[in-house]
Structure formats: C-alpha cells, structure tokens
Specification:
InterPro entries: AmpC-like, Beta-lactam-related, Beta-lactam/transpept-like. Keywords: Membrane, Signal, Transmembrane, Transmembrane helix. This protein is α+β, with helices and mostly antiparallel strands. It has two domains: 395 residues, DD-peptidase/beta-lactamase superfamily (Beta-lactamase, 3-Layer(aba) Sandwich); 135 residues, no CATH class. Helices cover 37% and strands 14% of the residues. The two termini are 39 Å apart.
Length: 685
C-alpha cells in the first residue's frame, strides 16, 4: 500500500488529542518565538501516484478470500514501513461478517510479546469512533420519544451551560459539531486507576461558546460528551451502564466497554499502545469525557456493531428502526442553518459524510495518544470496514495516510465508480469530474484571489492563553493563474492540494471528491468549511504579525540584558567612566522588568508545552508566570523615566536608542500577552 506518495490523502476524522504530539511541537516553536508556518511550496497537480485503485471500474467480489488476500498484500508491509506495532480490522457485507483480522503485535515485550494476529478478540481503543455509539444511544432515546433533537438541551441537564448566544443548543447541534464551543485540553486524556467523572468533567472550566449554535462546524469533544450526559440523565442510568444494557448486550458485544479502567475480565486482552513499534508501551489511557472517546472493543465486536448499524443483523439485534437509521445517516443541518456552508460535505447525526465513487459512505475516525482508528459504513451497499492501529508510528501524518489509503483502496476495489472513467456522481448529486482547462476565466481567477490569505481552524482556542497557538497552525490559500485555489497544506490531508470552483460558493479538489464551501459577508470571506465538522477562519493581520513581533522583541530584550554586563566589562577594560549615578535606580528597575519579561516568555513556553503534552499544570505555576508578565510590563515605567533622563543629560544617541528599543520591546511583549489572553484572570485550558 502506498502511504507516502499522494498529495490528496484525507486525514481521518480525528478526536480527543487534537494531534497532541504535533501541536506540542508547534507550541514549542511558538513559545520560543519562532515563526514556523504550515505553508509549503505551491503544489503540483494532484492525482498522479495516488496509490489507490481509482482506475478500477469493475468491482471485485467482496468475499473473505479476496478481502483477506488484499489485506495480506497491503497491511503488514504498511505497518512495518510506518513503525506501527499492530492493527485490528473488520469487514462486513450483506448481513455477514466477511473477515475479522489482527496483524502484527499487541505487545512488543522483550519476552516475545503477544501477536495481535493470534485472535480478532484482541481489544483496541477506537478513540472518537466511540462517538458513533454515543450518537446511537441518543437516537434510541429519540426513537422512543424521550428526547427531542431540536429542544434546548438545558431541558435534560442538571446544570447550566455557559452561553454567549441566545439561540438554543440542541442535540442536533451536539451530534453535528455545531454547538459553537471552543476547544479544551485539560482533562482530555490521562492515566491512573480512577474512573472519569462525566458530570464533573462537563461542569469544571467548560469551554466558552464562541460561535452561534448551528452556524460554524467546529469539532467538539465537549459537545459530544454533553450528548452522552443527556443519555445518562434521561435514561436514569450511568452512561457506561446504558451502553452495556442497550447496545453491547443486545448485540452480544461481550468484549466491549466504555468503563475505565477496564473490568478485570477484559484487562489481560487489551493491546498495549505505543508511540511507535520500537518504543515502550504507554499507560492505559483514561479519557476524561468517556462518551467522546473511551470505548474499548475487538474486531469481532465492531463487526457485530456495523451489521446492526447497517440494519442487517438478526431482527432481535437491531439497535434502531430503519427510518431512525436513515435519519441518523442524513445531513443534520440544512442550508437554512448553514447557509452556503451546506455546499460542502456535512455532518450527519454523529457521522461524517465520506462519499466516494458515487456510493454513500458515512464514517468516523478516532485518535488517542496511541491508538488510531477509522470506521466506514456503506448504508446503500450493506458494507462496512473498521481498522484500528496501536501506534502513532514514525510519522503521525503517514499513519493518518495509512488509514485513509486503506479506506480509499477498499472503496475503489469493491465499490468503484460506475462507467469507464466517466463522471462519478456522489450520493448528494454532485458530479465527480474535474475541469481540464489550462487557463481559468477572469471571474475564476478573481474568485480564487478573493479566498487567498492565511487561515486558522475554528476548532481551536479563543478565550484562553492557548490562543497563541493559532498563528502557528495556519493554512495558506493562494490563487493560481488557471483560476484554481492552492491550499498549503490542505487541513484535511495535511499535504498541499488544489481546488477548482464548481459552484457559486463551492470548490472541489482536483481529481478528488472532497469539497469546501465559502461563507462571505459584505463581500469579505468569513469562513471556509471542509470535511464536514471543520471550518477555516481568516487570520487577521494583527494576530498574524504577533509572533514575528514577539520574536524580534525577545531578541532585543535578550541583547539588552546581555549588553548591560558586557558594557560594564567593556568600560572597565577601556577605563571609561560609568553611567551617571542619578539614573542608576531606574536602570536597575528596568533590568528587573526586562528579566521578568524574558522569564515570562520562557515560562509560557514550558506551560504550553506541558499542556499540549496532556499533562496538568498547577494553577500556582501559571499565576507565577502571570506575575512575571506583569512585572515585565511595569518595567516600561522606569525605562521611560530613564529615557527622559538620558535625553535631558544628552547621554548620546546609542544609549537613547538602546533604551527606546527596550521600551518598544517591553511594549510588544505586553501587547502580545494581552492579545492572546496571557494576563486573563481565567487560566483554564
């Protein structure tokens, strides 16, 4: 399988850690005041060397023999090449389990470990694939008339949601990632022997609502966990108990649970999790909001679940009625709520639209620190595929591509586009052909130029000090001469990509099926939605300039701090007179301010790196860094007094220029701290 040759690979729909290791690297770059960018060179035309079987126009027979042979040819080599210890796979079709397989190692211990291929009953952690189970539980209550998808969820809760908008927050919003919440890191994933407390996690430092409900897709673990708590409240059963009684037991899923830590009967069967196959095993992860990602399951059990979701399990095992499942697999929001954003792929009630080759596909990906998974269902074809790997691998982006490759190869092999290389109409009626024109019209070029700029993800941090990460995790859009739009990188693939306009506000990737949709207000682009649950927002010039200015200011302060002792040594060597004594106090206080500002920058670097590594930072440590930040800001006062004295004494242009530079640098560091909430009384994250 080719996992590193394509520019178009879709990154699996990811959940809890928000690419924690990648973000940690970005955080490191940010807080040591570099200006690392995600942008790269303008991409070549995508499509060549994609590594998929997209040229296949005759479906292969979906049998155990063929699927097993396909998996044996592709997966073991891909695991080895990417440094992944093991994998778990399940495939179903026409009411039958086609295959359930394990590959590689579930434990790489020195005593030989445990092979994952010994049994398909080895347990893996599917991460945010758990959200499909949560959505299923919600839809069971909807079907029974116990909850209303469009009622304000406050009707079902025993605490108040912090809101910034008057519009109701509904279960429909929670299941489609449109309640408007920003991201939170604290308590996302931990370890230990204590089970997570769902209610406590939801009421402790909840994320701020930064978008009007139903308007801006922004993936939200908090929102999904809130839906799970509604299940708990309305059913009168703890969430884990509800899933046991109403999902796992009816389907005979005896190897599945949301309980953390695992029940004794399952503990010896769970795969270890790894950064990569050569490293030590990590601890069992405790997901702080269980409905969003705490599931543990086997390939055999996931096969049972897929059959039930497809409505092809035995009658007594059906989880939902046909009409409820169809509602669950249909777009959750319409153009009335989303406006022009409805032109892109949309969330259903708990799943992503992932159509390919004219076949309707709904799915969900999931990531913990160590496990990385994806599940897809073909509702109209009665098929499903699930894969989970137990390692991040040597390159996290390549691990994402591995899963995307497997899903796309499955579609192209068993459900190829109809016809002989012709138009592949997607399930929502959008054609899959692309323009081959060498040059675009003036209107096309103008439209592409209108979208050009720097963007950040709506799924991010807005009201906390982690908002400083935004200018680092950027996406550059540029207009090409042929009227197409270049993305570097494409947030859905993490690689460069090219789009062409196919509607007033809709663009489709060249030689692909993914679409983006644009929202404008008063002629200005206010957002670009992609991959169903994500939105790009324009990054304003002030925030874009923040990090470079901070970098320059930090260099000035560091040089200034070093210049004072260096100057003293130089004067002693050259036997030059010391500076005027009447400015000594102000000079000393200025040095204290400069040192404090530099320590604050370093302190924030440590704080953000620790947070993005999913470790807790004591509040006293954050408050301490804030004190340093305030002292640094106050350092401008003695610096200004010192400058006035130097001007009056005519101390020389070098000294005056140096003091002026220090004042400007302290001001820049302070402005950055204010802009990105470093001085906010709220230190939640």
């Amino acid at each position: 399988m080719h996992t590193a040759t394509t520019d178009r690979r879709r990154a699996p729909r990811t959940g809890p850690p928000l690419a924690a290791r990648v973000a940690a690297g970005l955080a490191a770059a940010a807080l040591v005041v570099t200006t690392a960018a995600c942008a790269g060179a303008e991409p070549d035309e995508p499509g060549a060397g994609s590594g998929t079987a997209s040229g296949v126009t005759t479906a292969q027979e979906l049998t155990a023999r063929d699927v097993d042979a396909w998996l044996d040819r592709t997966l073991p080599g891909a695991l080895e090449a990417n440094g992944i210890a093991g994998a778990s796979v399940a495939v179903v079709h026409d009411g039958e389990v086609v295959t359930t397989r394990g590959f590689g190692q579930a434990d790489t211990g020195a005593d030989g470990g445990a092979p994952a291929d010994a049994t398909a009953d080895t347990l893996f952690r599917p991460g945010s694939v758990s959200k499909i189970f949560t959505a299923t539980a919600v839809m069971q209550l909807v079907e029974q008339g116990d909850v209303d998808l469009d009622a304000d969820v406050s009707e079902y809760l025993d605490f108040e949601i912090d809101r910034n908008f008057d519009a109701p927050v509904t279960l429909r919003h929670l299941l489609s990632h449109t309640p408007g919440f920003e991201e939170r890191i604290a308590g996302l994933i931990g370890s230990g022997d204590e089970p997570a407390d769902l209610r406590q996690a939801l009421v402790t430092d909840p994320p701020e609502q930064v978008y009007a409900p139903g308007t801006t897709p922004a993936y939200s673990n908090y929102g999904n966990a809130l839906a799970g708590y509604v299940v708990e409240r309305v059913s009168g059963e703890p969430f884990e108990d509800y899933l046991d009684r109403h999902v796992f037991e009816p389907l005979g899923m005896e190897s599945s649970t949301f309980r953390q830590p695992l029940p004794p009967a399952l503990r010896d069967r769970v795969s270890q999790g790894y950064d990569d196959a050569s490293g030590p095993a990590g601890p069992f992860e405790i997901v702080g909001t269980p409905p969003a990602g705490a599931l543990t399951s086997s390939a055999n059990d996931m096969a049972r679940f897929m059959l039930a979701q497809l409505g092809t399990a035995p009658e007594q095992d059906l989880l939902l009625r046909d009409e409820t499942r169809e509602q669950m697999y249909s777009p959750a929001l319409t153009e009335a709520e989303l406006g022009s954003f409805a032109g892109a792929q949309r969330m259903t009630l708990g799943l992503f639209q992932e159509d390919r080759n004219g076949h309707r596909i709904v799915g969900h990906g999931g990531d913990t620190n160590y496990f990385h998974s994806h599940l897809q269902l073909y509702p109209d074809d009665g098929a499903g595929i699930y894969v989970s790997v137990n390692s991040g691998g040597l390159d996290p982006a390549a691990t994402h591509a591995l899963r995307a490759d497997l899903m796309e190869d499955f579609a192209d092999r068993y459900f190829p586009a109809a016809g002989d290389g012709g138009t592949a109409t997607t399930a929502d009626g959008t054609g899959g052909t692309t323009s081959t024109a060498d040059g675009g019209t003036a209107a096309q070029r103008e439209n592409a130029e209108r979208l050009a700029g720097t963007y950040v993800s709506a799924r991010g941090f807005h009201s906390t000090f982690l908002s400083a990460l935004g200018p680092l995790m950027t996406y550059e859009l540029s207009a090409r001469d042929d009227g197409r739009l270049a993305m570097s990188p494409d947030p859905g693939t993490l690689r460069p990509n090219v789009y062409e306009q196919v509607g007033d506000d809709v663009w489709r990737e060249v030689d692909g099926e993914r679409r983006i949709a644009v929202r404008t207000e008063a002629g200005q682009v206010t957002g670009i939605t992609h991959d169903a649950a994500f939105t790009l927002l324009p990054l304003d010039a002030e925030r874009r300039a923040g990090l470079p200015i901070l970098a320059g200011a930090t260099v000035v302060l560091l040089l200034g701090l070093l210049a004072w002792p260096a100057g003293a040594v130089w004067r002693r060597i050259r036997k030059r007179p010391a500076p005027a004594r009447d400015g000594r106090v102000w000079r000393g206080l200025t040095r204290v301010g400069v040192a404090s500002a530099l320590l604050a920058v370093a302190g924030w670097a440590v704080v953000v790196l620790t947070v993005m590594g999913l470790a807790e930072v004591p509040p006293v440590a954050i408050r301490g860094v804030q004190v340093l930040q305030v002292v640094g800001a106050l350092g401008m006062v003695p610096a200004i007094v010192l400058l006035v004295g130097e001007i009056r004494r005519r101390a020389g242009w070098r000294r005056i220029a140096g003091t002026t530079a220090v004042i400007l640098a302290l001001s820049a560091v302070t402005n950055f701290a204010i802009m990105f909430q470093f001085l906010s009384p709220d230190i939640s994250y």
